[in-house]
Prior knowledge:
Largest sheet: 6 strands, antiparallel
Oligomer: single chain
Number of strands: 15
CATH superfamily of the largest domain: TonB
CATH architecture of the largest domain: 2-Layer Sandwich
Distance between the termini: 55 Å
Strand content: 25-35%
Number of helices: 4
Helix content: 10-25%
Amino acid sequence: MIPAGIHLFAEGANLLLPRVFFAVALTIGAVDIASAQHSATPAIELTAKGDIQIGPDGHVTDYQLKSQLSPAVAQLVDRTVRGWHFKPILVDGKPVNAKTAMSIRLHGAPKSGDSYLLTISSVDFGTLTRSKLVPPKYPTDAARVGLGARVVLYLLIDADGKVVQAIPGQTSLDLRARSEHEAETWRERFEKVSVEAALQWQYDPSEFVDGKAAKARYAIAPIEFSIAPSERHGTPKSEWKTYLPGPVHPAPWDKAHPDGPPEQRFADLANGETASTNSNFQLEDDVIGKAL
Protein backbone atom coordinates (compact mmCIF):
# COMPACT_ATOMS: atom_id res chain seq x y z
CA MET A 1 0.00 0.00 0.00
CA ILE A 2 1.22 3.51 -0.82
CA PRO A 3 1.70 5.54 2.40
CA ALA A 4 -0.94 8.22 2.96
CA GLY A 5 0.07 11.70 1.91
CA ILE A 6 2.88 10.60 -0.41
CA HIS A 7 2.61 11.98 -3.96
CA LEU A 8 4.99 12.38 -6.86
CA PHE A 9 4.76 14.60 -9.92
CA ALA A 10 4.76 11.88 -12.58
CA GLU A 11 1.76 12.02 -14.87
CA GLY A 12 0.09 8.72 -15.52
CA ALA A 13 2.06 6.86 -12.83
CA ASN A 14 0.98 3.22 -12.76
CA LEU A 15 0.60 1.72 -9.29
CA LEU A 16 1.26 -1.84 -10.45
CA LEU A 17 4.61 -3.13 -9.16
CA PRO A 18 7.05 -2.67 -12.05
CA ARG A 19 10.12 -4.72 -12.81
CA VAL A 20 13.00 -3.21 -10.85
CA PHE A 21 16.70 -3.77 -10.80
CA PHE A 22 19.58 -2.64 -8.60
CA ALA A 23 22.83 -1.84 -10.39
CA VAL A 24 25.92 -2.43 -8.26
CA ALA A 25 28.84 -2.53 -10.69
CA LEU A 26 30.25 -0.54 -13.56
CA THR A 27 32.18 -2.48 -16.18
CA ILE A 28 34.72 -0.58 -18.25
CA GLY A 29 35.92 -2.35 -21.34
CA ALA A 30 38.97 -1.79 -23.48
CA VAL A 31 38.85 1.20 -25.78
CA ASP A 32 40.77 1.45 -29.00
CA ILE A 33 41.75 5.10 -29.42
CA ALA A 34 42.63 4.76 -33.08
CA SER A 35 39.19 3.43 -34.07
CA ALA A 36 37.07 5.99 -32.17
CA GLN A 37 34.71 7.96 -34.39
CA HIS A 38 34.58 11.68 -33.74
CA SER A 39 31.06 12.06 -35.06
CA ALA A 40 29.71 9.51 -32.54
CA THR A 41 32.06 10.22 -29.65
CA PRO A 42 33.40 13.79 -29.47
CA ALA A 43 35.23 12.93 -26.25
CA ILE A 44 36.02 9.73 -24.37
CA GLU A 45 36.53 8.75 -20.76
CA LEU A 46 38.82 5.91 -19.66
CA THR A 47 39.65 4.40 -16.28
CA ALA A 48 43.04 2.84 -15.55
CA LYS A 49 43.15 0.72 -12.40
CA GLY A 50 46.25 -0.84 -10.92
CA ASP A 51 48.63 -1.20 -7.97
CA ILE A 52 51.46 1.20 -7.23
CA GLN A 53 54.37 0.79 -4.82
CA ILE A 54 56.66 3.53 -3.51
CA GLY A 55 59.95 3.43 -1.66
CA PRO A 56 61.01 5.33 1.47
CA ASP A 57 62.08 8.31 -0.68
CA GLY A 58 58.62 8.59 -2.28
CA HIS A 59 59.64 7.44 -5.75
CA VAL A 60 57.63 4.77 -7.58
CA THR A 61 59.38 1.41 -7.34
CA ASP A 62 56.72 -0.67 -9.13
CA TYR A 63 53.45 -0.23 -11.00
CA GLN A 64 51.07 -2.89 -12.34
CA LEU A 65 48.17 -1.94 -14.61
CA LYS A 66 45.07 -4.11 -14.15
CA SER A 67 42.65 -2.47 -16.59
CA GLN A 68 42.40 -3.72 -20.17
CA LEU A 69 43.53 -0.77 -22.28
CA SER A 70 44.95 -0.52 -25.77
CA PRO A 71 48.76 -1.02 -25.83
CA ALA A 72 49.38 2.61 -26.77
CA VAL A 73 47.30 3.96 -23.86
CA ALA A 74 48.70 1.39 -21.40
CA GLN A 75 52.24 2.46 -22.31
CA LEU A 76 51.41 6.14 -21.76
CA VAL A 77 49.84 5.42 -18.37
CA ASP A 78 52.77 3.26 -17.27
CA ARG A 79 55.35 5.85 -18.28
CA THR A 80 53.43 8.66 -16.57
CA VAL A 81 52.82 6.85 -13.28
CA ARG A 82 56.41 5.67 -12.96
CA GLY A 83 57.53 9.31 -13.11
CA TRP A 84 55.38 10.40 -10.15
CA HIS A 85 56.86 11.35 -6.77
CA PHE A 86 55.00 10.99 -3.47
CA LYS A 87 55.44 12.40 0.00
CA PRO A 88 57.30 9.73 2.01
CA ILE A 89 55.04 7.64 4.24
CA LEU A 90 56.26 7.56 7.84
CA VAL A 91 55.91 4.96 10.58
CA ASP A 92 57.20 6.16 13.96
CA GLY A 93 58.96 8.98 12.12
CA LYS A 94 60.77 6.65 9.74
CA PRO A 95 60.01 6.54 5.96
CA VAL A 96 58.90 3.09 4.79
CA ASN A 97 57.80 1.17 1.70
CA ALA A 98 54.10 1.33 0.90
CA LYS A 99 51.64 -0.06 -1.65
CA THR A 100 48.16 1.00 -2.71
CA ALA A 101 45.41 0.27 -5.22
CA MET A 102 44.93 3.21 -7.58
CA SER A 103 42.31 4.39 -10.07
CA ILE A 104 43.06 7.03 -12.71
CA ARG A 105 40.33 8.65 -14.81
CA LEU A 106 41.43 9.87 -18.21
CA HIS A 107 39.70 12.34 -20.50
CA GLY A 108 40.30 12.07 -24.23
CA ALA A 109 39.75 15.20 -26.32
CA PRO A 110 39.65 14.60 -30.10
CA LYS A 111 42.45 16.02 -32.19
CA SER A 112 43.00 15.81 -35.93
CA GLY A 113 42.24 12.54 -37.67
CA ASP A 114 41.53 9.68 -35.26
CA SER A 115 43.90 10.81 -32.51
CA TYR A 116 43.04 11.98 -29.00
CA LEU A 117 44.76 14.10 -26.38
CA LEU A 118 44.60 12.21 -23.07
CA THR A 119 44.64 14.16 -19.81
CA ILE A 120 44.22 13.08 -16.19
CA SER A 121 40.84 14.14 -14.79
CA SER A 122 41.10 12.47 -11.36
CA VAL A 123 43.25 10.07 -9.31
CA ASP A 124 42.12 7.98 -6.34
CA PHE A 125 44.45 6.07 -4.03
CA GLY A 126 43.41 3.25 -1.71
CA THR A 127 40.65 2.18 -4.13
CA LEU A 128 38.57 -0.46 -2.38
CA THR A 129 37.19 -3.70 -3.84
CA ARG A 130 34.27 -5.52 -2.26
CA SER A 131 34.74 -9.22 -1.59
CA LYS A 132 31.19 -9.56 -0.22
CA LEU A 133 28.26 -7.62 -1.63
CA VAL A 134 24.73 -7.66 -0.24
CA PRO A 135 22.35 -5.60 -2.40
CA PRO A 136 19.71 -3.52 -0.59
CA LYS A 137 16.02 -4.28 -0.79
CA TYR A 138 14.16 -1.89 -3.08
CA PRO A 139 11.49 -0.07 -1.03
CA THR A 140 8.22 -1.55 -2.31
CA ASP A 141 6.23 1.67 -2.05
CA ALA A 142 8.87 3.55 -4.03
CA ALA A 143 8.94 0.87 -6.73
CA ARG A 144 5.16 1.05 -7.11
CA VAL A 145 5.25 4.74 -8.03
CA GLY A 146 8.35 4.34 -10.22
CA LEU A 147 10.69 6.26 -7.92
CA GLY A 148 14.47 5.77 -8.10
CA ALA A 149 17.27 7.23 -6.02
CA ARG A 150 21.02 7.54 -5.57
CA VAL A 151 22.31 7.16 -2.02
CA VAL A 152 25.92 8.04 -1.23
CA LEU A 153 27.16 6.45 2.00
CA TYR A 154 30.09 7.26 4.24
CA LEU A 155 31.71 4.00 5.34
CA LEU A 156 33.99 3.15 8.24
CA ILE A 157 35.87 -0.08 7.45
CA ASP A 158 37.92 -1.96 10.05
CA ALA A 159 41.30 -3.67 9.56
CA ASP A 160 39.59 -6.92 8.54
CA GLY A 161 37.67 -5.18 5.73
CA LYS A 162 34.27 -5.25 7.42
CA VAL A 163 31.98 -2.21 7.28
CA VAL A 164 31.36 -1.28 10.91
CA GLN A 165 29.53 1.99 10.33
CA ALA A 166 27.53 3.41 7.40
CA ILE A 167 26.11 6.94 7.38
CA PRO A 168 24.10 8.61 4.56
CA GLY A 169 26.03 11.49 3.01
CA GLN A 170 23.55 12.50 0.30
CA THR A 171 20.38 10.98 -1.12
CA SER A 172 18.95 12.23 -4.41
CA LEU A 173 15.62 11.27 -5.98
CA ASP A 174 14.86 10.97 -9.69
CA LEU A 175 11.31 12.37 -9.41
CA ARG A 176 10.13 15.55 -7.71
CA ALA A 177 7.99 15.19 -4.56
CA ARG A 178 5.15 17.55 -3.72
CA SER A 179 6.99 19.00 -0.74
CA GLU A 180 10.36 18.84 0.99
CA HIS A 181 8.77 16.86 3.82
CA GLU A 182 7.60 14.17 1.39
CA ALA A 183 11.00 14.14 -0.33
CA GLU A 184 12.72 13.61 3.02
CA THR A 185 10.33 10.73 3.78
CA TRP A 186 11.35 9.01 0.55
CA ARG A 187 15.04 9.70 1.15
CA GLU A 188 14.84 8.09 4.58
CA ARG A 189 13.28 4.95 3.05
CA PHE A 190 16.15 4.54 0.60
CA GLU A 191 18.77 5.37 3.25
CA LYS A 192 17.44 2.78 5.70
CA VAL A 193 17.75 -0.16 3.29
CA SER A 194 21.12 1.12 2.00
CA VAL A 195 22.66 1.24 5.47
CA GLU A 196 21.28 -2.20 6.34
CA ALA A 197 22.90 -3.68 3.24
CA ALA A 198 26.24 -1.85 3.60
CA LEU A 199 26.75 -3.15 7.15
CA GLN A 200 26.99 -6.63 5.63
CA TRP A 201 29.68 -5.73 3.07
CA GLN A 202 33.27 -6.94 3.19
CA TYR A 203 36.30 -5.37 1.46
CA ASP A 204 39.73 -6.63 0.45
CA PRO A 205 42.77 -4.79 1.87
CA SER A 206 43.78 -2.05 -0.57
CA GLU A 207 46.64 -0.25 1.12
CA PHE A 208 49.75 -1.58 2.85
CA VAL A 209 52.26 0.42 4.90
CA ASP A 210 55.56 -1.22 5.81
CA GLY A 211 54.07 -4.58 4.81
CA LYS A 212 50.97 -4.30 7.01
CA ALA A 213 47.40 -3.59 5.92
CA ALA A 214 46.19 -0.10 6.81
CA LYS A 215 43.85 -0.15 9.79
CA ALA A 216 40.66 1.93 9.87
CA ARG A 217 39.61 3.07 6.41
CA TYR A 218 37.15 5.83 5.62
CA ALA A 219 35.36 5.67 2.30
CA ILE A 220 32.37 6.80 0.25
CA ALA A 221 30.18 4.53 -1.89
CA PRO A 222 27.09 5.28 -4.01
CA ILE A 223 24.09 2.96 -4.40
CA GLU A 224 21.66 3.52 -7.27
CA PHE A 225 18.06 2.33 -7.25
CA SER A 226 16.61 2.30 -10.75
CA ILE A 227 13.31 1.46 -12.43
CA ALA A 228 13.55 0.04 -15.96
CA PRO A 229 12.52 2.86 -18.41
CA SER A 230 9.97 0.59 -20.11
CA GLU A 231 8.22 0.05 -16.76
CA ARG A 232 7.96 3.71 -15.77
CA HIS A 233 4.70 5.08 -17.12
CA GLY A 234 4.14 8.74 -17.84
CA THR A 235 7.82 9.68 -17.99
CA PRO A 236 9.90 9.98 -21.18
CA LYS A 237 12.68 7.53 -21.89
CA SER A 238 16.11 9.05 -21.62
CA GLU A 239 19.64 7.77 -22.06
CA TRP A 240 20.84 9.96 -19.19
CA LYS A 241 19.89 9.40 -15.56
CA THR A 242 19.23 12.63 -13.67
CA TYR A 243 18.62 13.16 -9.97
CA LEU A 244 17.29 15.99 -7.81
CA PRO A 245 20.16 16.54 -5.36
CA GLY A 246 19.32 16.08 -1.71
CA PRO A 247 21.06 17.84 1.18
CA VAL A 248 24.69 16.92 1.85
CA HIS A 249 25.64 15.78 5.35
CA PRO A 250 29.22 15.64 6.70
CA ALA A 251 30.71 12.47 8.12
CA PRO A 252 31.70 12.74 11.80
CA TRP A 253 35.17 11.39 11.01
CA ASP A 254 35.81 13.52 7.91
CA LYS A 255 38.99 15.30 9.06
CA ALA A 256 40.27 15.86 5.52
CA HIS A 257 37.44 18.27 4.66
CA PRO A 258 36.85 20.52 7.70
CA ASP A 259 34.78 22.97 5.67
CA GLY A 260 32.33 20.33 4.51
CA PRO A 261 32.05 16.96 2.73
CA PRO A 262 33.55 16.27 -0.71
CA GLU A 263 30.44 16.96 -2.83
CA GLN A 264 32.37 16.78 -6.11
CA ARG A 265 33.56 13.27 -5.30
CA PHE A 266 29.92 12.30 -4.71
CA ALA A 267 29.10 13.29 -8.28
CA ASP A 268 32.22 11.78 -9.85
CA LEU A 269 32.01 8.37 -8.19
CA ALA A 270 30.37 5.73 -10.38
CA ASN A 271 27.76 3.30 -9.16
CA GLY A 272 29.45 0.21 -7.73
CA GLU A 273 32.69 2.00 -6.87
CA THR A 274 34.08 2.74 -3.42
CA ALA A 275 36.61 5.52 -2.89
CA SER A 276 38.90 5.88 0.11
CA THR A 277 38.94 9.28 1.79
CA ASN A 278 41.97 8.74 4.04
CA SER A 279 44.64 7.23 1.82
CA ASN A 280 48.23 7.40 3.09
CA PHE A 281 49.42 8.30 -0.43
CA GLN A 282 49.88 11.96 -1.35
CA LEU A 283 51.49 13.19 -4.58
CA GLU A 284 54.13 15.91 -4.40
CA ASP A 285 52.89 17.47 -7.64
CA ASP A 286 49.41 18.24 -8.94
CA VAL A 287 48.75 15.91 -11.88
CA ILE A 288 45.11 16.78 -12.55
CA GLY A 289 44.72 18.17 -16.06
CA LYS A 290 48.19 17.07 -17.12
CA ALA A 291 48.57 15.37 -20.50
CA LEU A 292 49.98 11.88 -20.78
